[in-house]
Amino acid sequence: MKKHYFYPLFGFILPTVAIAYGVVIPHSCVAGINAQSIGFGTTLLGASIAYCVGISKVISDLKAEKEK
């Protein structure tokens, strides 16, 4: 996979993590490491995995189309 395929993912993950863990969560009632902050992190991890799987599926489909 090419590096530029991940630019949209970084454009989503980096600001989300910075805003959530840098601004929102520390100033809320769920501040600190707890089930809510860990759950939010795993949600971002799940979104990243889904994005990577989707990109790899598109790449494999394009390769299959070229072989026909």
What does this structure look like?
The protein is mainly α. Helix content is 75%, strand content 0%. It contains 2 helices and no strands. The protein has helices at 7-24, 35-67. Helix 1 runs antiparallel to helix 2. The radius of gyration is 16 Å and the shape is elongated.
Task: Write a brief structural summary.
With 68 residues, this protein is an all-alpha fold.
The backbone outline, from C-alpha atoms, is elongated
Count of runs of 4 or more consecutive helical residues? 2
Give me the strand/helix succession.
HH
Domain count: the total is 1
Main sheet: strands, sense, barrel: none
Residue fraction in strands: under 5%
Which structural class should the secondary elements be placed in?
A: mainly alpha
The average pLDDT is: 93
Low-confidence stretches: none
Helix content: over 70%
The oligomeric state is: single chain
Terminal CA distance = 21 Å
Rounded to an integer, what's the Rg over CA atoms? 16 Å
Number of strands: 0
